[in-house]
Amino acid sequence: MSLLVLYDEEGKVLKVEMDHDSIVKTLEDLCIIFQRWQVKNLPEDASEEDVLKAYEKEIESIKSFYKFVSLDVASITPDHPKKSELRNMFLREHTHSDFEVRFFVDGMGTFYLHLRDKVYAVVCEKGDFISVPANTPHWFDMGKNPSFKAIRFFSIPEGWVANFTGSDISEKIPDHDSIVSSWL
Ligand SMILES: [Fe+2]
Fold it and tell me: Which residues hold Ni(2+) (predicted)?
């Protein structure tokens, strides 16, 4: 189930949305594209090539809009030896000079979008596609025991590099694990 929790900048819950269409509409008004793609049956150990092949049509249909230069499949499991390090990499507020475009093939993670004086926590799960525009302050939390597989799309080389804003706002907002245990 997709979930959107809206917070003020102190971490107070302002609104919770669980209906996919409502989430799409709320995010659309903020220029964030959120879609549900038909999930394909893939084995857990599917290779990057298998994943890209399975979603070939969907990838092709959005390619003209973004003019991607590359794409890959990122995956992590709870037994990953560097899971804390990887989690911490994108846990502080940052921006990118490229769109941050992800499709969740499996598992889940939460994107936090800091727009004006509010924070939109979007819990993405298997089947969710999200596109965060360039230069949008945001962070991503995969949780203490991360488990996801996602296709990452890049439209400029090095576009994934994080430019940290220096804000500590991500410490004031409940993390992925808290959101999941409270609402899902
Ligand atoms: Fe990011």
Answer: 94, 96, 100, 138
